[in-house]
Amino acid sequence: MFSQVGVFTSMSLPLHSRVADALRTEIADGVLAVGSPVPSESALCERFEASRGTVRAALGTLRNEGLIAGGRGRPPTVCAPAVAQPFETFMSFTAWAQSIGRAPGQRTLEVARRAASSVAATALGLDPGTTVVDVLRLRTLDGSPALLERSSFVESVGRKLFDFDPDSGSIYAYLIEQGIDLHGGRHTIDAVLASDADAAALDVDPGAALLRERRRATDSSGTPLEYADDRYRPDRVTFTIDNTQSTHDLRIVKEIS
């Protein structure tokens, strides 16, 4: 039944896992090149003698791994391999993208003074209802949507952004130029489902899985300056954590697919 398929790791695996393994191997070997379309569902069904549901499950696995991208009626294509980001540029999307030779972009959706949300107020150590400056930006890599940024800055920092064009580049670089002591950050990474607003901005289906990075940026004294809730497309960006037993150091790297 499987002589035409190629390499399978184990015949005991479910068929959708074996289909995913075969396609994964072809991507790794360059048989399916970066940017090339994945064979159609009907072609894969015929090749693997599998149902459409089995093929869709296999493609879903590869999509979740960031090996292919596509959806909302578009055929899937093979993604570029991941590139690691050093921790020292972790807080700046612009610096990271430029360091790996990719073109960062941004489109500002909102800059506004408003009462802090309960989550932001807690993270920033503010009383409920304290005014903050909220920023909502769509970030792109080589023109494709990759990240939806939601940041709440304490007012003394955020008000400086009303004299800055957030579409012109890095907010952090501008704030540092203005003398703001952006010293460190605490990052929490998990997964969430795309809301309707997330889906519209990032060009994914509502309910699609997104990587979320919640960040609290502080000055050198540990005073919170920003709370952020950033949503990444996992087919464009992934995270890897490296550590060593001898030094107990921890290094987080962001990768681009």
UniProtKB/TrEMBL annotation:
One of its GO terms (biological process) is negative regulation of DNA-templated transcription. This is GntR family transcriptional regulator. It holds the Pfam family GntR. It comes from Rhodococcoides trifolii. Keywords: DNA-binding, Transcription, Transcription regulation. It comes from the Bacteria. GO terms for molecular function: DNA binding; DNA-binding transcription factor activity. Residues 13-81 form the HTH gntR-type domain.
